[in-house]
Structure formats: structure tokens, C-alpha cells
Write a structure and sequence with these properties.
The protein is of the alpha/beta class and 253 residues long. It is built from 13 helices and eight strands. The protein has a single domain, classed as Alpha-Beta Barrel (TIM Barrel), CATH 3.20.20.60. It has an eight-stranded parallel barrel with strand order 1-2-3-4-5-6-7-8, surrounded by seven helices. Strand 1, helix 2 (26-33) and strand 2 (39-43) form a beta-alpha-beta unit.
Length: 253
Amino acid sequence: MRENKLRTLWQADQAVVNGWLAIPNSFSAEVMAHQGWDSLTIDLQHGVIDYAQMVTMLQAISTTATVPVVRVPWLEPGIIMKTLDAGAYGVICPMVNSRDEAARLVSYTRYAPRGVRSFGPVRAMYYSGPDYPEHANDTVVAFAMIETRQALDRLDDILSVEGLDAVYIGPSDLSLSMGCRPVFDEVDAPVAQAIAHIAERARAHGVQCGIHNGLTSVALARRDLGYRFLTVSSDARLIAAGAQQVLGAMRAG
């Protein structure tokens, strides 16, 4: 069974540096994977990527040691199971607002008797190895997104779900839900307090926590709070930023 580096780094209390893919292209995914990210997340929720494109992107990532993660569009068993069958080693599920929803997420990512995942790892066995069925339950990672006031109010209930590996914070949606500005980095004070509180409670429950960031400086500060899965920017934002840097230098010269 191929190693899931997320679990290895977490066991050493080290942070995973995660890249984000919103562009529906296997070559751009391959280029990103060869830069040395610990993991790359393919965004099926807000990126412009469909399932077939996702599969080719997973194949491209597989040319490296980078761990493939997918953010699914919603808490729906079909897409979660198909994503795992395609070879994703982690699933990030948006808008998990209750203990019941978190428990359902975990059940969709685990084979019986620990869950209800249907058996059919069509591509996953090529990616991970022929012993995938024996080790999948202890290898794949389930992230529940905490991004609403409801989820924050029920945080301990969600974190107490057996088998939930990690939570992932969407600062923009969490901000909106709390009546604040929808931003990644310079969040309003109540959201900053919530972000610190989530990290504290996650560690108390033995659950890993991740968060979306725009700037490396903010990601590093959140690492110091206890976050151990740190997304920084995205392929689309990095292309735009690189192009702006080149054009700015040329026009200034």
C-alpha cells in the first residue's frame, strides 16, 4: 500500500503544505505536483473541474510523491465514493454542520464494518497497490469543513465523531456566516478568535485541522496556532500573481 504522507507528517506533528487546483488540466496539475507540494487538492466544488478531468489530474499527480486530495461538491455518497475509487487519498467535504453529517461523511469513506463505502476501487488499486482493500480504511483521510456558525456552535459534537481524521476551515464562508467580510487572511476579530478556538478544540479531540490561506505569512502564523494542513493560494492565483509580477517589472522598466 502506497504511503499516505499526510498521516506520516501528522504522526510527527508536522504541517502538510497543500496546493490547490482549480484549473481543469492534467498538465498544469503535473507541473504543480513536480514543485514539491506535500499534497494537492483538486477542487470539484468551486473549481471549474468535472469528474473525468479530475481523473486525468489524479493520474498526473501520481507521477510524483505528492498526495492527491479532492474537495467534493457536497456531502453526497456517490461522488465521495467515486472520488476515492479514482485514487484520492483524502476527501474534503464542504458545509458539514452537525455530528450526523460528520458521521455520514466518515461512513462514506470507510468499508464495512466501519462504514458503508461500496467496494470498487477501480483506479485506486493501481495507484496504491493490490493490498488497497486491506488498508484503505486506515489510509484515506476524511476532512469535514467547518465554515458556518452552525458548525462552530456544534464543534465539539462534530470533533467527537469516531473516525473523523481532520477538519478544514473555509475562512471566507465562516466569515460570511458570522456576519463578517469574506476573506482568507485578514479576517475580522470574531473570525480570528473562532479560527484559534477550532484549532484548540481539534487538538483536544485528537483531530487534525487545516485551513485555506492566501499568504504564506498567514499560513505560518496559523501553523503556530496548531494547524497542520495549510493550503496556500491556488494554481489560478499563482499564475495570475506570476504574470502580474513579470508585467509589472517590464512596464516599470
